[in-house]
Amino acid sequence: MNVTWQGVFPALTTKFTQDDTLDLATFNLNLQAQLAAGVDGIILGGSLGEASTLTNAEREMLVKYAVEQVDGKVPVILNIAEGSTREAVHLAQAASEFGASGLMLLPPMRYKADDRETVAFFKDIAHSTHLPIMIYNNPVDYKIDVTADMFEELLKLDNIQAVKESTRDISNVTRLRNRFGNRLSILCGVDTLAMEELVMGADGWVAGLVCAFPRETVAIYRLVKAGRLEEAREIYRWFMPLLELDLHSKLVQYIKLAEALCGIGTEQVRLPRLPLVGEERQRIRTLIEHGISIRPELPDYLSL
């Protein structure tokens, strides 16, 4: 399936049972809510998907199951976050066999590669597969900045097509657009900056709180692209306290709690993460429940 790098791409959480196996039934419950809301693709095995705790066998199961359930409606993207080029290449080649439509690539994990090494890492993976690729640029969390000069080299490869823009610098959208035009698709990767980056010309949104609030997320995207900024702004203002949950080191636990309270997920996480308890859980639960209680009425955004 072809990938058009625009629209809302949820970075889906990975669902687990109490026995610490993949909970495909709950995963599908959430997936169907995303599809009904009008998302444009899904991303599996990202940071929010507890990537570092998944085995390759579990990645294979998730991708194959998701491909079967989406039934051609949207592309299925697999995240790759490996420490070695060899393992990243192996997973990229396997992703095609699993049925994935594209890849999201992080720079080398657990080693702060320099610019030359980072470019070589991405190019080696891209050369190994025909799948289209989105580079995940998040220097705040992963300490490697994929600069415009590096993209100049990377974009010589046709299957490197997009960036998940997580530098926290809104003006980077304009810099990238000025330099590369439409050759590089730009998707905002920070929930709390999404509307701002969309207004400045980003093509899409790799979203986190969409896992619990898919309709509101897609509504903001489509309203912005339709030029109905005041309507989008009102929803975005309501959403902001919830979107800020995506900035915390416990974003997985926070967003899974939101999914559970919205009836499309559970709080089950995989060790070393632990479920929320005590005052912290009550505080986050109160914030989420307040947001749900004043959830805005949405326009018919699917017709835009």
UniProtKB/TrEMBL annotation:
Keyword entries, A-Z: Lyase
Superkingdom, taxonomy of origin: Bacteria
Stored InterPro entries: Aldolase_TIM (IPR013785), DapA-like (IPR002220)
SMART domains, per database record: DHDPS (SM01130)
UniProt GO molecular function: 4-hydroxy-tetrahydrodipicolinate synthase activity
CDD domains: DHDPS-like (cd00408)
PANTHER family: DIHYDRODIPICOLINATE SYNTHASE
Active site per the UniProt annotation: 136 (proton donor/acceptor), 164 (schiff-base intermediate with substrate)
Official protein name in the record: Dihydrodipicolinate synthase family protein
Residues that bind pyruvate: 206
Family: Belongs to the DapA family.
Keyword tRNA processing in annotation: no
Name of one Pfam family that matches: DHDPS
Organism for this UniProt entry: Arundinibacter roseus
Record bears the keyword Lyase: yes
